[in-house]
Structure formats: structure tokens, C-alpha cells
């Protein structure tokens, strides 16, 4: 694995946006472990000091990990200084606000794509960019319909239309805005790739749900810590999406890294969804490993989403760059998620 040719030299600076996020923190740690230097962007450096402590501390002390503030990633030139001297960029940052007005979510997400690409064009050191999209950029992952087969040209245009439906804005808009922002942002990526002679390679990684080891307490109580919701029996959250796809966060982080380092991966849409999962599958694992705890009852019907997607390119990267034979087992990811979330029984 160490002898593999890489598109950027070991020891290069890599920029990771949205560095305090669940996925981004794992990307950072894996890059550091491979001998790269990482600059992470956050809104407020003081609120993200945990990224310089614990498992990250030795890297920060050795000067190979640093944080820089980008308070508003949507403005032109927001990344000009952060990009100085970096060989690669991983743009994982997104708008976390759940608000009804699409202009507060979709508009800044698209603007952030333009901002970081325009900044990268001006910095000759940049050779690779990877954008984090979403499975929901291709299909709604709806439970009650056949979602069909996802292809290179699949787009969830319906959610974009729903988000931009005329006001008054309400909860339907708020729920549509996040996936719609992913559709719009990724389309903007490929528009710029098609229209400009970019001096760097661009790839996109599209996860579905992420589970696995949280590296900070902020990743435990959030809306998207699915396993914690099941552990606590938060049916209000569980009922909204009984079935979906889930992958271990470390697998998806590795695919992002491989999309930077592998010289043969160019202009790829890497669908990295993981396993088809119903909450009953997770509940069975939790009961096995926490027999002393009472969990919510199973749903009357256990099913999986009716959608097909080719994940072979992502799985090949896991094998090549991580010597992994497929996705981390669901059981392992669930147990690691719970064991590191400091949950009382």
C-alpha cells in the first residue's frame, strides 16, 4: 500500500473544509496518519480546539496540522488565503441550518463551490479537488416507491423543484433544502468542469448515511447520528426514514483520500452508500451487544429500499488503498459507534 504511486507527494499540504464535521475529522486523521500535512477550515477556530487535542495533538504540536477560520464560505475569495500552498482540497463543508428559506441553504452552497474553485484556479500548487456530495443528489431514497437504478446521469431534480417551490416557505421546504443544496452544488461542480479548462483534477464522493466512531462529543448528539437515535429510541427521527443506506465513516473517509491520491481517478462520481439497512437490522445488533438494555420494539415490517447503484469503483478504492474486502460490516460499525458514544445503558 505504501508503494502505490500518488497524484500528490507524501508530505504535501491538503486543505479540508468543514474540518470539525464527523466525516471531515476522519479524513483529516487518515491523511495525517499517511504522512500528509493538513490545514482545516472552520467557522470559529476557538470553538474547534478539540481538533488540535487528543488523537490530533501530536500532529498539531509537530506543525503538520493547523486550523484557519473561514466564517463565510460563500463569499468570493473566502478561501484565497487558506488555499495558499496546498496540493489538494477536500470540500466537505455544507450549510447545516435547517431553515425553510432555500436561499439560506442552496444559494450559499452553490456559491461555496464557485468560491473554492475560483480560489484554486489562482493557486498553481493545487492538483486535485474532491467534493462531498450525497446519495440524495441522485435519487430521493424514498421508501414507498421503486427508486430504479442510479447511473452517472442520475439527478434528484424533484427535490430541487420542491425546495424552490414558491413561498410561503414551510417545513416541506426546510426538509427539501439540504438534499436540494447537494443537487445544486454538485451540478455546479460539473458545470464548471465542463465549461472551464481547470488546471486540476476534480472528483465527487457521494455518501448516504454515515455511522461509526465519533471523534468528538459534538458528533454524538447531532441530528445525523443515526445509531444514537436508535439506541435512545428517538422514534420521531427513526420514523422519518426507516430504511436507507449506511456506511462506516472510516470507509467513506478513505474513499475521499483515495479520490485525491489515485492518479487514475478523474471526473468520477463515486457512489459510496454502503449497506442497505432497516432499523430492525440495527436493533437486532444492539440487542445482541447490549442485552441488559430495553430497546424500542421492532417495526412490524422490515424492508430495504428498492434502488440499485453501482458502488464497484468505491469498493475497488477501498481494496487498493485500504486492503479492505468490501464495506466494514454493519455490526462492527454499529458497535464502534455505540462503544465510543459514552452511552449509559
UniProtKB/TrEMBL annotation:
It comes from the Eukaryota. The keyword Transmembrane helix applies. GO terms for biological process: steroid biosynthetic process. Keywords: Membrane, Oxidoreductase, Transmembrane, Transmembrane helix. Residues 15-149 form the 3-beta hydroxysteroid dehydrogenase/isomerase domain. This is Putative Aldehyde reductase 2. The keyword Oxidoreductase applies. The lineage of its organism: Eukaryota, Fungi, Dikarya, Ascomycota, Pezizomycotina. It holds the Pfam family 3Beta_HSD. InterPro entries: 3Beta_OHSteriod_DH/Estase, NAD(P)-bd_dom_sf, NAD(P)_dehydrat-like. The chain crosses the membrane at residues 12-32. One of its GO terms (molecular function) is oxidoreductase activity, acting on the CH-OH group of donors, NAD or NADP as acceptor. It comes from Glarea lozoyensis (strain ATCC 74030 / MF5533). Belongs to the NAD(P)-dependent epimerase/dehydratase family. Dihydroflavonol-4-reductase subfamily.
Amino acid at each position: 500500500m505504501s508503494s502505490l504511486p500518488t497524484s500528490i507527494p507524501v508530505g504535501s499540504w491538503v486543505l479540508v473544509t468543514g474540518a470539525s464535521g464527523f466525516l471531515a475529522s476522519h479524513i483529516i486523521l487518515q491523511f495525517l496518519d499517511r504522512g500528509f500535512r493538513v490545514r482545516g477550515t472552520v467557522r470559529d477556530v476557538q470553538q474547534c480546539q478539540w481538533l488540535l487535542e487528543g488523537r490530533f495533538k501530536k500532529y498539531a504540536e509537530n506543525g503538520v496540522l493547523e486550523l484557519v477560520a473561514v466564517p463565510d464560505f460563500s463569499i468570493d475569495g473566502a478561501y484565497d488565503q487558506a488555499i495558499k500552498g496546498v496540493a489538494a482540497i477536500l470540500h466537505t463543508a455544507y450549510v447545516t441550518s435547517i431553515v425553510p428559506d432555500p436561499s439560506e441553504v442552496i444559494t450559499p452552497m452553490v456559491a461555496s463551490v464557485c468560491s473554492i474553485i475560483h480560489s484554486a484556479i489562482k493557486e498553481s500548487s493545487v492538483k486535485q479537488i474532491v467534493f462531498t456530495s450525497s446519495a440524495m443528489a441522485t435519487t430521493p431514497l424514498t421508501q414507498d416507491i421503486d427508486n430504479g437504478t442510479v447511473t452517472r446521469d442520475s439527478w434528484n431534480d424533484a427535490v430541487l423543484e420542491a425546495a424552490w417551490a414558491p413561498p410561503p416557505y414551510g417545513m416541506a421546504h426546510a426538509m427539501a433544502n439540504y438534499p436540494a443544496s447537494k443537487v445544486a452544488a454538485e451540478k455546479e461542480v460539473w458545470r464548471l468542469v465542463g465549461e472551464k479548462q481547470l488546471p486540476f483534477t476534480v472528483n465527487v464522493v457521494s455518501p448516504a448515511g454515515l455511522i461509526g466512531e465519533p471523534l468528538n462529543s459534538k458528533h454524538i448528539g447531532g441530528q445525523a447520528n443515526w445509531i444514537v437515535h436508535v439506541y435512545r429510541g428517538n422514534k420521531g427521527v427513526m420514523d422519518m426514514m426507516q430504511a436507507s443506506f449506511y456506511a462506516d465513516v472510516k470507509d467513506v473517509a478513505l474513499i475521499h483520500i483515495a479520490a485525491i491520491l489515485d492518479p487514475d481517478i478523474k471526473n468520477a462520481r463515486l457512489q459510496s452508500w454502503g449497506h442497505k439497512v432497516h432499523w430492525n437490522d440495527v436493533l437486532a445488533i444492539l440487542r445482541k451487544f447490549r442485552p441488559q438494555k430495553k430497546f424500542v420494539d421492532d417495526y412490524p415490517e422490515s424492508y430495504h429500499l428498492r434502488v440499485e447503484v453501482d458502488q464497484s469503483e468505491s469498493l475497488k478504492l477501498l481494496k487498493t488503498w485500504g486492503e479492505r474486502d468490501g464495506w466494514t460490516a454493519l455490526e462492527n460499525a454499529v458497535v464502534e459507534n455505540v462503544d465510543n458514544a459514552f452511552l449509559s445503558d
